[in-house]
């Protein structure tokens, strides 16, 4: 059989790319969430953790190298994830050039049908989030030496709109993960009905847990639990 | 005017003589072969992609011939073989219950009411075992036992369990097996597939079948396709009755056009009426739906004992019910052959004891089976059928007994063929339901799939080689005068249909034709009724050509034009069916003449006068056909009165 | 009952097409959906109008020829039911019913509600078979098949190739159709030798035909009249990834 196209560009291959990159990003999200929760252990501990991040790998690797490796992997994953999604979205659009006059409400999964716009919202949020808490550009404090202070300033009650945006983004992320986590298993070959039920349940629990883990921080600041 | 004239008798000259077990082997050895290198230079046209046509096209292509395949559906996977539910017979004797090739042969000849050719039927029984092997190798998911071996069941009144099945979708699975083999050959470039094409004429050159004229149903383009041989696998003609279990598109045009060109039409009156169909619900009815015969394994058929008993069936006490099949046929009960079950239903309805709004129905009751086996078991066995029944009727058969009534299901008649499946036109082969060969006057359950695949996979590919080996035939193309003439005829006919521009739709004519046929040439026929029908059909045909309204043009997808051409041919066939039924003054299998019955109402054959195949030769439209008789000899199975009591 | 139909009318592949409204009166609840369209067509013909072209054949839910988008649902509102088996008792007097063809670039409209589904045949031709030329078969009982596998293979084999999965898929994907055939053959011992070449061939043919990719949205399995399960697509993915990643180890001849 002569192959004209790399299997990675097939519809199945692209989905596998999305699954693998998605899983990488999810692993990062888990670690990130656990780190966030350190905010409840107090300012010193949290700042210490934040600074430690820059030193992982020492002395094997020179300072901040690990961080940059991690960042590179994440950027590659995000780019590949978006590239594959875009190719698939364009193909899907080309596959149905004429739309139905009678458009039906979703009968399968709502989460599945909001993956693309959800993804865009998450991307916008990530950009804002980097400018806010990584570079500090959009942060009212913006002190790289004081991450705890940055976080507390961010979610201050008078900046309710930041918390709102953050919440929306996290909920969108939850939906994205609810379908995405199941879908990743399926795209990588999960094939039994029983496994499907398990994967769906696990994806739902995971999405809810992750949302809760992320949302607890801003609400703790908002309610004054963390200050 | 005479309705027909009698011509010379004909005979099948291809079947070898000698012991019946050796005949097919002898024929295979004696048949000439085509050198593999020459095969790809030879083109074979196959019309139809059902079990017979699909399997034949795939097999011929595997052997190296260039095949051109045609079907009117949008894909070769959709032919109506797909709707066969019950199963496929094979003499494997996996059950060790006394089955054998000889028993299957015997049962089929007897079931056909001694109106089929022994040689053909024996060959069918022989190759039945190869069919199962072939289909399993293709990945057909037959039902299996826990040990991983194939499951079989008893079907249609057979005393042995020789029917292989894939739930209630055996036809679908077998057809998809053949379709996949065909698609493989299409992918390899050995078969040129033409879906949405309808054959409208046969082209004869020097007395041989050399091509067909087809219409591309999408563009309306008429083209002439030439070949070294033509195979018709275009199915049966049950739709002459308008309402039947056939698909809406099933038609007689391919075979009828061949008949008009000289192929004899054999036994057109042999029609199988299936006893278990969902009754007609109103004038809008467009087709009838079969409920698998397997339902009779557990369901009990009954009607109220008294006329006009309109009570809810559940309120009718046991002793006021007439389980008439169990009463009349105590040894076979509800499992009597199809023709007998159908006629019995008609008789009780004629007595005024029919049920349902139209009074044309009998109950098929599962209450006892549900009590005995539990609802779960019944669900596992028939769940999909029960659901289908509920979708169509809106009644739940777990609670209310099903209502069933006979409907036209299969036509045993078809183009006359010899042992090689070649028609009376050299180079024209006919396989599957389109020929007349193996079922005599009545087909047994689960035998249609067997015959279609036997013809397509095993018989035709051998016998057609013998014909092709006699070549090479002179090369001809679509510019040959005979081809041009055939094409012009087709174009003229289409123009004539479009030009009438009358005030009645094609369907209204078809429905009326169907009513005439059902009334007079259906389950029970009589001389007076048939004569009346012939007159009515002729009048209606004349009306048709004066009043039919076909919309649109010939140069587009035009479904009303397609139907018009098919119905025009049904009119001519209908007349021949009635003439055949009229001339056959006996009752046999699916042909029941009111004048010829035993004192207790069973079919009475007349072997002295009618143990022959009636092969009809076309002369001209409206002119009497010529009857050629092929005498049937029974050396191995001696004709007896069928008894299922 | 009386109904208002809004039907997609398109003279030919090049025509732009539009929805046209037709009132239909005296519809019996016992009619099938297609019989209701027959009634409309009879009237249109007598009125000198072009009848609505729609595909249909067996009218018993098995040939897969019929396929209509009815109020945005492939094959209409009743689950597990093809358009030909849908009966008018599912609707009520005064309803407006929108009827459209399957929409996919791989299924171009031929006329009105008739589409070309030849792409499905191409997918099968690209590997949806077991190479078993006639006459070469071993005795049927030489290879036992576990009942559970045979039953699961049958479940997938029940696909009628109607295309509802494509019509309902937000991505216009034909993966459920492709996966059904792959699952059937990969569950059976007869399908093993070609298992990995088959999946590559069929997925390539699927993509080349212009179908979109699967995003596991699950709309297909909801409308599938034969209930082909979504997990068949997981099997397709697994076989495809195995075939492409392990390559030489599993792909015969490579």
Could you provide a short overview of the structure?
By secondary structure, chain B is an alpha+beta fold.
Structure description:
- The complex is a heterotrimer of chains A (227), B (645) and C (254).
- Chain A is mainly α and 227 residues long.
- Chain A has one domain: 3 helical TM bundles of succinate and fumarate reductases (Up-down Bundle).
- Chain A has helices spanning 11-37, 43-53, 65-95, 110-113, 115-134, 147-154, 160-187, 193-222.
- Chain B has 645 residues and is of the alpha+beta class.
- Among the domains of chain B are: 274-408, Flavocytochrome C3, Chain A, domain 1, CATH 3.90.700; 481-610, Fumarate reductase/succinate dehydrogenase flavoprotein-like, C-terminal domain (Methane Monooxygenase Hydroxylase, Chain G, domain 1, Up-down Bundle), CATH 1.20.58.
- Chain B contains 17 helices and 21 strands.
- Chain B has helices at residues 20-30, 36-39, 51-63, 101-111, 118-137, 170-187, 253-260, 324-328, 338-350, 367-373, 375-393, 448-469, 481-500, 506-521, 527-547, 559-583, 607-610, and strands spanning 4-6, 43-47, 66-70, 88-89, 152-153, 163-164, 191-194, 197-205, 208-216, 222-226, 229-232, 265-266, 271-277, 300-304, 321-322, 362-365, 402-411, 414-415, 428-430, 612-617, 625-631.
- In chain B, the strands form five sheets. In chain B, strands 1-21-20-12-18 form a five-stranded mixed β-sheet.
- In chain B, strand 20 and strand 21 (625-631) form a beta hairpin.
- In chain B, 61% of the residues are buried.
- The mean pLDDT of chain B is 95.
- With 254 residues, chain C is of the alpha+beta class.
- Chain C has eight helices and seven strands.
- Chain C has helices at 33-46, 118-125, 147-157, 164-168, 175-187, 195-208, 219-223, 231-245; strands at 3-9, 18-24, 69-70, 73-74, 96-100, 109-111, 114-115.
- In chain C, the strands form two sheets. A five-stranded mixed β-sheet of chain C has the order 2-1-5-3-4.
- In chain C, helix 3 (147-157) packs antiparallel against helix 5 (175-187).
- Chain C is elongated, with a radius of gyration of 21 Å.
- In chain C, 64% of the residues are buried.
- Chains in contact: A-C, B-C.
- At the B-C interface, helix 3, helix 5, helix 6, helix 11 and helix 12 of B face helix 1, helix 2 and helix 3 of C.
- Chain A: The chain crosses the membrane at residues 12-34, 65-90, 110-131, 160-181, 202-226.
- Chain A: This is Succinate dehydrogenase cytochrome b subunit.
- Chain A: Keywords: Membrane, Transmembrane, Transmembrane helix.
- Chain B: Residues 510-644 form the Fumarate reductase/succinate dehydrogenase flavoprotein-like C-terminal domain.
